[in-house]
Structures are given as C-alpha cells and as structure tokens.
Amino acid sequence: MKEIEKKLNDNGVRPTAMRILIYKYLAEKDVATSLTDIEMAFAKADRTTLFRTLKTFEKQGVVHQIDDGTGVQKYALCEPGCNCELEQDLHLHFHCNNCDETVCLTEHKIPHINLPEGFVAEDANLVLKGICDKCSGQ
Amino acid sequence: MKEIEKKLNDNGVRPTAMRILIYKYLAEKDVATSLTDIEMAFAKADRTTLFRTLKTFEKQGVVHQIDDGTGVQKYALCEPGCNCELEQDLHLHFHCNNCDETVCLTEHKIPHINLPEGFVAEDANLVLKGICDKCSGQ
DNA sequence: CTGACCTATGCAACGGAAGTGCATTTATTG
DNA sequence: CAATAAATGCACTTCCGTTGCATAGGTCAG
Ligand SMILES: [Mn+2]
Ligand SMILES: [Mn+2]
Ligand SMILES: [Zn+2]
Ligand SMILES: [Zn+2]
C-alpha cells in the first residue's frame, strides 16, 4: 500500500484514497481498462472523478492511453522503465476478437518504418487483432 | 462518369445519383474522409443516407475504413488491386498533427510481427503520426 | 488553532458521432 | 400497370468523452 503512495508521489500525483484504489485496480488487471470498466468496479464513485483521475495519471506518466480500434479509450499502467511523458514507449497492443480484451505487448516494439520523402513521424500506434493466448489455448 | 457506374456495378453496388456523387467526391480527394466531411459537402443530403452509403461501399469493397486514432471513422477508396473484402490490405496510414489530415500510404505494407506463443494475428492497424509532406514542405 | 487557499470530488449538463426503426419515395421486374 | 424490392429521409437513441460550477477536504501561513 505504501509503495503505491510512493509511486504516485514520485510521479507528482497526490495519493488520495480514490486514486490509490484505482491504481490498485489497474495493477491487479493484466488487460487494458476503459473508463466504463472502472466505473463498474467503483459503482459509488463519480464518473467524472474516475475520468479525471485517469487523465491525471496519463499526464503524469502513471498510465498510457491505448487506442485499440474499438472506439473506446483504454488505459494501462506504464512499465517501471517506461517514460511515456517524454517520448512514446512504442510497444504494440493486441486486441482479441474473441474475448474482446486488449493487452500490452511491452516486449514487442513497433519496428522502424521508412516513410516517403517529406513525412516526419513523431508517434506510432500498432494494434494487432486476432485470437489471444488465453482464447487460442483451449 | 460511366466508369464510376461500371465500377459500382462491378462491386455489386447500385449506382444511384447520390452514390455516384459520393464516389466522385472521394475520388477527387487524396485524403481519408469522415462522414462529417461528406455531410458538409452535400449539405442537402441526409446524414443517414450518407452513412449507409459509406457502409455499403465498405461492405462491397469500394472503400476501406480507417481508424487514425482521432476517434472519428474515416474512409478512402480502395486501390484498383486491393481486395479488402477477402483479407485486409495491410498498408499503413499517416495522420498529420499539423493539418489534421490522414492519408493512405498504400505502398507501405505493415511489416510482419512475431508474436508470443498463443497469439494469432488476423488483422493489423498501423498509424504513424507526425508532419506530412505538404506541411513539412514549407 | 484558524482562516485563507488550493486541490479533489460530485452533480448536471453538453456535444459529437455512430447507429436504428419506421415511413416514404424511387427503381426494377414480371 | 401492379407487385416487389431497394434506397432515401426523418426522428430518435445510445454511448462516450468532456466541461462548468458548486462543494468538500486537505495544507499551510500567521
Ligand atoms: Mn501498452
Ligand atoms: Mn488506406
Ligand atoms: Zn481472447
Ligand atoms: Zn499536414
């Protein structure tokens, strides 16, 4: 518990009760999480607070946002080494068409792409879709 | 004009007046187009008709949908050789942070990625973001 | 301790975009 | 021409992200 408080403090986020709970919730999940997911897990908390908590976490580099193509924004905790605030940690994401979950594949970086003359890339998003390990296993 | 009618017919889309206009509009643009874009270009047409036209085009392989991370669905005509209906034509897309336009880089295919054991990829989406050729040119 | 102050939270409402149900018009075909 | 099918138009809904403003709660100077 104290580690979470420290982690948040280190990232310039005041460790309120709610924020610690949300952090804990995200830490226990191994899949990307939407605002609605959190809303259902903390039914008595206000949606706006949860929304703003995620935005604060994002700005302070506690979580990174994931666009998996479902049209719903998702979030996941940043890895210890990751420095999203400065430059994107360009790992890829996998969305399962079966269980509908999205996971970070933090070990798999997005390969460098040679662009035509005049194009300058600053950021990249790569999402693979298919069947995840849990769903293909059985 | 007759070519458009033929093209639509070949793809199993009845060439109504509206559909031909929309096709022409898409053909004249070299950037991905949203429903709202089309709505503004054809102010007197109903949004639902435009929406369903795009969906019909998509299903019949006339256009492909593009998710560029802006949260707005975009569409672009498929290349002559492309066969989106069967399998995705996995070219990448570039979104300009300056002019806010998204373009198809049809020559640039998404590289193959080695996934961890158990993951089976069926589809992929790669979007690069930065400054496009038109915006970096000056 | 106390008041001033800043931040976090809660409540309400807004806006954009995707999508659906149903009535009506337009095209097709026997 | 009549019967049928397809396309269009209108109204309405839902979902999600977002903002404005009022209140509660924690922090700190005096
Ligand atoms: Mn991730
Ligand atoms: Mn494209
Ligand atoms: Zn799965
Ligand atoms: Zn540009």
UniProtKB/TrEMBL annotation, chains A, B:
<dbReference type="InterPro" id="IPR036390">
    <property type="entry name" value="WH_DNA-bd_sf"/>
</dbReference>
<dbReference type="Pfam" id="PF01475">
    <property type="entry name" value="FUR"/>
</dbReference>
<dbReference type="InterPro" id="IPR036388">
    <property type="entry name" value="WH-like_DNA-bd_sf"/>
</dbReference>
<dbReference type="InterPro" id="IPR002481">
    <property type="entry name" value="FUR"/>
</dbReference>
<protein>
    <submittedName>
        <fullName>Fur family transcriptional regulator</fullName>
    </submittedName>
</protein>
